[in-house]
Write a structure and sequence with these properties.
It is a single chain. By secondary structure, the chain is an alpha/beta fold. It is built from eleven helices and seven strands. A five-stranded parallel beta sheet has the order 2-3-1-4-5, with helices on both faces. Strands 6-7 form a two-stranded antiparallel sheet. A hairpin with an 8-residue loop joins strand 6 and strand 7. The termini are far apart.
Length: about 280
């Protein structure tokens, strides 16, 4: 089975994306889809990730389960942190031995967003803050220049999964077309996308909050930008989010080497969208 390796911070949306992938392949192909992950092993995450030997044993169990299921025909999704590049290399070697393709789906979020999602979970499903912080600190971001991290699909929290490109990478024995997910950015892809996500979200919240005390025609200052937002009318959050998604999609294809200009570029884009 071709292998999809999920990757990302704790509480970064990996399981949700894994479920989307499973549903897609079950609906569009006649292949069986197997999800392998911490949940199926009954892992107590705070106990396991606080003990290096327990964590090592858990990784070995997950790898063994993948090895049992992987072949050329169907699909295996490994839904776990997969934050150690050496472990991802072992998985790559496993698929190479089985002569089946693989790809990596990196759910990219900020530590702040993931921490908030963790706090909003039920108590039994939460990581303790110490464990959460340690896992974020230890995370080794994937790099598409490494053959074991390629093809790499980097997905932000509001992105639509590139399902067809992932399917092509698995079943047509070829990498997806070069784009922001599979080629090197002028900056590290991870750093660029992180800054893009964080800065545009900060701008959005500044505009949304400023509208509570402003009227159409006001000029609004936003963090990180010398350009001003020209608020010609009231704009609801749904429209702001739509404009943000459009800007992010454009920026992925035309990344800037100077992340300090992202806020100004976004403000310019918004001002055009408001008119």
């Amino acid at each position: 089975m071709p292998l999809i390796v999920m990757c990302g911070y704790p509480c970064s949306g990996k399981t949700r994306r894994a479920e989307e992938l499973k549903m897609h392949f079950e609906e569009t192909t006649d292949r069986q889809v197997h999800t392998v992950g911490d949940g199926a092993l009954g892992v107590d995450r705070n106990s396991v990730y606080a003990d290096s030997q327990k964590e090592k044993d858990t990784r070995a169990s997950l790898k063994a389960e993948v090895e049992r299921k992987v072949n050329k025909d169907n699909v295996v999704i490994l839904d776990s942190l997969n934050y150690i590049k050496g472990y991802r290399y072992e998985l790559f070697c496993l698929t190479k031995h089985a002569q089946t393709p693989h790809c990596l789906v990196h759910c990219l979020t900020s530590g702040e967003d993931s921490s908030l999602w963790n706090q909003n979970r039920g108590v039994a499903e939460q990581y303790s803050q110490d464990i959460f912080d340690a896992l974020v600190q230890r995370f080794e971001a994937p790099d598409s220049r490494n053959r074991w991290d390629s093809p790499l699909f980097t997905v932000l929290k509001d992105d639509i999964l590139p399902l067809e490109a992932i399917s092509d990478a698995l079943f047509k024995r070829k990498a997806p077309p070069p784009n922001q997910s599979t080629q090197s950015q002028p900056l590290s892809s991870t750093n660029f996308l992180y800054e893009l996500d964080k800065i545009t979200q900060d701008v959005l919240m500044a505009i949304f909050n400023a509208q509570k005390t402003s009227v159409p025609g006001d000029i609004i200052s936003v963090p990180g930008a010398t350009e001003k937002v020209e608020l010609t009318r009231t704009v609801n959050m749904a429209e702001l989010r739509k404009l943000r998604r459009q800007f992010i999609s454009y920026s992925k294809m035309h990344p800037t080497e100077n992340t300090g200009q992202i806020a100004n570029m976004f403000v310019q884009y918004l001002n055009k969208g408001f008119h």
